[in-house]
Design brief:
Layout lengths: L11 H17 L18 E6 L5 H12 L3 E6 L11 H11 L2 E5 L3 H10 L4 E3 L7 H15 L7 E5 L4 H12 L3 E5 L8 H9 L4 E4 L2 H5 L4 E4 L11 H7 L7 H4 L6 E4 L9 H4 L6 H19 L5
Parallel strand pairs: 1-2, 1-3, 3-4, 5-6, 5-8, 6-7, 8-9
Helix pairs in contact: 1-5, 1-12, 2-12, 3-4, 5-6, 5-12
The site of phosphoric acid mono(formamide)ester (CP) has 8 residues, from helix 2.
Length: about 300
Amino acid sequence: MKHFINIKDISTPVLRKIIFDAKKRKLKRKKLNVLEVDKDQPLKGKLLIQMFEKSSTRTRLSFYLAIRQLGGGILTLRTDELHLAKGESLPDTARILSTYGNAFMLRTDSDEKLKEFKKYISIPIINGLSPSSHPTQILSDVFTIEEIKKKNISKLNICWIGDSNNVLNSLIEASVKFSFKLKIGCPKKYNPNKYLMTWAKNNKGNIKIFNDPKKAIINSDVVLTDKVISMNDKVNKQKKKKEFKNFKITSKLMKLAPKACFLHCLPRGKEVSDEVFYGNKSKVWQQALNRVYVQKSILLYCFDKLR
Ligand code: CP
Ligand code: NVA
């Protein structure tokens, strides 16, 4: 069974194959309307069930388009509409999903739940964001970076300024898998996950942490950030926002990386100025659209149809 749960569990050749397939498919459907199906209809007749325990705009819409463009159909659920929220067990729910559907995409507020679903489900499962990772986002961002920079990402300096959250965790995993340099800028109190940093170190990762945003950003090719407060954050929000005050991406900060483009998974908060966010270095809309293409190839990987 081919699940897509974390980048670090998937081999580099397979991740590369997904990106290559996405590139090919994106190019091939240039003239097609948004709901026209790819000529080969590789997932004709297949049903993707997606379930959200947390809000989503992009992941929801891009998976919808992804499966439709591959010839399949989709059902979107919210946990609170299911008996699962009212006492039906997770194992029974997983068995039912496997009876009706062909793949399951889950956005969850608990990594444990993702593991439990994986244990009891007999169809591929995709992690559409958990408290600890956001792998479909980051694989798509690798695709977008190579598309913009027209270079293999291993030749680029990538910089993350912001919270050590789920998106950064997946970026750390990607930096090892795709061998790119990653500089992280965050307040010391919010340094990245130690377990993941040790894993990266043991796997030849080239990752540096700076508690000064200027040191982190200097001469980078790409600058990424995300909201200071994530959906799963149960912290004193005002206090945390204050602690990140000096880590806001402004035009002044971006000047230290004159060649850099700016990416943000969205939705945004105040961690980036309007000038940068709506400026010509920002590629956030292209980044959001590319999720459709990369998710198509992730789906094909899960359905064992990646050629
Ligand atoms: N970037 C992202 O996953 O967006 P949504 O939360 O809107 O799905
Ligand atoms: N880190 C953010 C990502 C949203 C797409 C969150 O988990 O809320």
